[in-house]
Amino acid sequence: MPRNTGTPPPHERVDLRLENGWVCRNRDPSKYDWRLGSQCIGMPIASWQPVKQ
Question: How far is it, in rounded angstroms, from Cα 24 to Cα 49?
Fold first, then answer.
C-alpha cells in the first residue's frame, strides 16, 4: 500500500489502512481529509491502495 502523502489518491474507490492497523475497504477518497496527521475514525490514515474489482 502506498503511504499517505497528504494528497487524495487518484482513484474512485480505495482501501485505507489506519495507523492502528485497521483496514477500511472500498471507500470514496473524496470523503476523507488526506492531510498528514488528520483523523479518520479517530486515527490518521497510514496508507491506501486502489480497490481491486
Answer: 11
